[in-house]
Design goal:
The protein has 274 residues and is of the alpha/beta class. It has helices at residues 24-33, 63-70, 92-110, 126-134, 169-178, 196-200, 204-214, 225-236; strands spanning 2-4, 11-18, 38-42, 76-79, 116-118, 139-141, 162-163, 187-193, 220-222, 239-240, 246-248, 255-259, 262-266, 271-273. It is built from eight helices and 14 strands. The strands form four sheets. Strands 2, 3, 4, 7, 8 and 9 form a six-stranded parallel beta sheet that branches.
């Protein structure tokens, strides 16, 4: 038995972008145009002041702007530290406050339960990992590129495929889209970054080209980080009989599996009998 993705798909694409900056507005429009999904990592203690007029369209969003953009958008909002600190340099109580206060504010503002995190500055330690476990954080994204399409083995050290500025981004994209799946495996392409980098480097065409090429493929699932986490957890919760003739799905979401070359959907609470 092997995992298949929703509707029997074999590949999944996800994005993760940090710091709730005004360039997220243009980026989100690009994503929506091509049917792509992203996790936006928010520092809810670092919004631009509501009563200050910007001299130029740059920097962090105001709280009202971020709520207007992200709430009910279909994209995920995740923790990035209340004030974007180096978490590993804080004591335990300060770490807990940075994580839980960011979570509380995000949930209040955007009306969604928040269980994911991106490490501020990409740095962490064993002590940070322990605090995340105690704070019930489901996954945490690093900035260490793998340049592969593998799923994480440790969800609190979820290494992305690459940054959007990777020189061979489109080569990876073509490999991901065009290479047939072998040995029943599924693949994950994970891109991360900061949208202000597109303005800084005057290279919005990078993400425009990538999004246009990656969107609209029938064999690719477009998902947020937490949707991927929840789906994999649902798959690993499947219960099987000794001879694998019966497979029960105790989770709240449907799961697809491949058995002897055939793909089956097992609905929530359903037992597949073969």
């Amino acid at each position: 038995m092997r995992m298949r993705l929703p509707d029997g798909k074999t590949k999944v694409l996800t994005f993760s972008y940090d710091d709730n900056v005004v360039q997220d507005i243009r980026f989100l429009e690009i994503l929506n145009r091509h049917g792509l999904k992203c996790t936006f990592n928010v520092n809810s203690g670092k919004y631009y002041p509501e009563d200050v007029t910007r001299e130029k369209f740059y920097g962090r969003m105001k709280r009202s702007e971020a709520i207007s953009l992200f709430k009910d958008s279909g994209h995920e909002i995740a923790i990035h530290g209340l004030t974007h600190p180096f978490l590993e340099k804080l004591d335990t109580l300060e770490m807990i406050r940075e994580i839980t206060e960011d979570k509380r504010q995000i949930e209040m503002d955007y009306g969604q339960i928040t269980r994911g995190l991106a490490y501020p500055f990409g740095t962490y330690s064993d002590a940070v990992l322990e605090v995340l476990k105690n704070c019930k954080v489901a996954y945490a994204r690093t900035v260490k590129s793998t340049y592969t399409f593998k799923f994480p083995t440790n969800w609190l050290e979820w290494h992305p495929t690459c940054h959007h500025g990777y020189e061979y981004l489109m080569d990876l994209a073509k490999k991901f889209v065009e290479t047939p799946i072998r040995f029943g495996k599924v693949e994950l392409f994970y891109v991360w970054g900061h949208t202000y980098e597109f303005d800084d480097n005057n290279n919005w065409e990078i993400i425009e080209e990538f999004a246009e090429y990656m969107g609209g493929h029938d064999h690719i699932w477009y998902a947020t980080n937490i949707e991927i986490y929840d789906y994999v957890k649902a798959y690993t919760s499947l219960e099987t009989s000794f001879d694998q003739k019966m497979i029960h799905n105790p989770s709240a979401i449907p799961v697809w599996v491949e058995i002897d070359g055939e793909v089956y959907e097992i609905k929530s609470g359903e037992t597949l009998r073969r």
